[in-house]
Every structure is written in structure tokens, then in C-alpha cells.
Amino acid sequence: MDLKQLEYFVRVAELGSFTRAAHALGVVQPALSRQIRALEVELRQHLLVRNGRGAIPTEAGKVLLAHARGILHQVQRAREELGRVRGALAGRVAIGLPPSLARTLAVPLTRAFRRALPQATLSISEGLTVAMLDALTQGHLDLVLAYNPPGLPDITLQPLFDEPLALVQRRAPGLPEDPPLPIALHEVAALPLIIPSRPNALRVQVEAALATLGLKPRVELEIDGVAAILELVADGVGVAVLSPHAVATSPHASELVARPLTQPELHAHVMLASSDRRPATLTQQATADLIRTLCAQRYGAPRVPSSPPDPAAGATPAPPAQCPG
């Protein structure tokens, strides 16, 4: 067997499809199939089973997958160690950012990365939390910044910083810009709310927080995307619950006001996610350190959450907020 065969096999096994793996690797599917078949012949084992939904590893394939990931990782580490001997870390790091953070973090992160790791390559993608975590699991991304992602197998989460959630409204004529007037959460129930569809964690958190007050949100529209939500709010269609960062980076920022939520406050926790399936390379570790340092400088330390309510006492703890973009 050779490294190319192992890399091809790992991609097919992780993506669950020869077609998707061929696209990700930039090869034609027949060539990919030949390499996998040659590997199976050499090992005298069927490694993948095709079905109507793609391809899944056999028992032998699962064993090889664990070893192949380790082998490929060690090869990458060896290359990076050799690069360090030359005086610089190399390799490619793919990072996923939610759109609201990409607008404020992508440029300073790129600058810091190029200064610290001039021989390495940085790739930044924008996306929703669920989609980015899926890409992380499949190996398309190495690191993901996400608004309170759910706990998932093989995913390590590290807190970076916190943002208070605010009620976003269209700015009324003559309304002073600063400071925005706070609003109690129970008042939100009477307002036409533009909010992501379930199971978005922000939606669930808002509903759960209102439920503890014996209230329900008045959902005007369900929209999965920060930009579209803010455009509709600026157009006067309704209000939204989002982070102030989302408003500050919007083209409609001057038309909007973000009012602090009180009684109770709601917070979104930004986490750095990495996959346990692929141990971090030295370049990825250095990039994660850059991200932590940069976020601490720009946003401060993460907030220590208070103890959740006791379900036995009749209160349902709200899940953490996941910003819809």
C-alpha cells in the first residue's frame, strides 16, 4: 500500500461517497475506484461496501481507517517537523467562521497568521454552525469557531469569548443612537419576531427562556440567515434576537438598534471546535493559539456560566445560543 491509496480510502470512508471523495481530492472517480480496489486486493479484504446512499467501511475497513488516519497524521507531522528545522512551520489550515464573526475577525486573523506562519497556507470559509461542524467531522475543516455548538462525539470544544444577545429593532426616526434602552425579556413576547427555524439553538433558547416566564414568542417569520433577518428587520417587518456583533457588521447597522435583554440576560458562547479524529498538526496547534490570543485581545475572556436551574424544581434549563450565522 502507498500513502495515496490510504488518503483516497480515508476520504471515501469519511465522506461516505466515491463521488464526493473524488470531488474533494480533485481526481476522476474511476481513478479513485481503481486505487481503492488495488488496496483491497493487496490486503485481501473488502474495505468498503457500496449502498444506495454511498459507501461505508466494512469491519476490516474500520480497522484500517483508524490506522490510516494515524499514518497520514504522522506523515504530516514529519513534514512539519522538517519544515521547522528549516525555520518555519508549513502546511494548510482550513478554518470555518460564522458570517457575523468573519466580517470582524477574518482580516486580523489573516494578518496574524501570515506574520507568525509565513510558510503555511490559510483557508477561511463562512457557514452556519451545523454545516461547519459537519465539514469539521468530515475533514474539510481543521478548526471551527461556532456559537455554542452542541456536544458531538469526537469534537473538542474550547471556550473563546461570550456575547450578550440583544433585541434588534428598526431605529425609529429621532431615536438617539446611544445608549440603547434595555428591554425585559417578557416584553419580547408581544413583538413580531423574525427567528431561525427549529432546531436552531438560538430559537430553542429564546423559547425556553420565555417558557420559564409562562410566555411564548410571537413568531412572524422563520429565516435561517443573519443577513436576511437583518434586512427584514431594517425593512420594518419585525424584530430579532441576535448578537450586537451581527448588527455592527451589517450594511444596515445605521438603520438598526440593538437593545440589551434583561430579566434574564441571554448570552451566546463562542467556542473553538476541533476534531478528535484527526490529531492537530503543529501548524494547526499554532493557528489555534493565534485564534485564542486574538479573541482574548478583541473580545475578552469567556464568561463563567451560572449553574443551570434544577429540572426537578420545574424549570427547564435553556440550551446555549447558536447564532444563525
UniProtKB/TrEMBL annotation:
HTH lysR-type domain location: 1-58
One GO MF term attached to the UniProt entry: DNA binding
Pfam families in the record: HTH_1, LysR_substrate
Domain of life: Bacteria
One record GO biological process: regulation of DNA-templated transcription initiation
Region called Disordered, residue ranges: 300-325
Entry keyword set: Activator, DNA-binding, Transcription, Transcription regulation
InterPro entries for this protein: LysR_HTH_N, LysR_subst-bd, WH-like_DNA-bd_sf, WH_DNA-bd_sf
Composition-biased stretches (Pro residues): 305-325
Family that this chain belongs to: Belongs to the LysR transcriptional regulatory family.
UniProt protein name: HTH-type transcriptional regulator CynR
Source organism of the structure: Tepidimonas ignava
Higher taxonomy: Bacteria, Pseudomonadati, Pseudomonadota, Betaproteobacteria, Burkholderiales
